[in-house]
Amino acid sequence: MISRIWHSWTTKKNADIYEKLLRNEIFVEIKNRNIKGFIDIQLLRRDIRDEVEFITIMRFASIEAVQEFAGKDYEAGVVPPKARAILNRFDERSQHYEIREEIKSDI
Question: Partner of 35 at 20 to 30 A CA spacing, among 16, 60, 72, 75?
Answer without folding.
Answer: 16
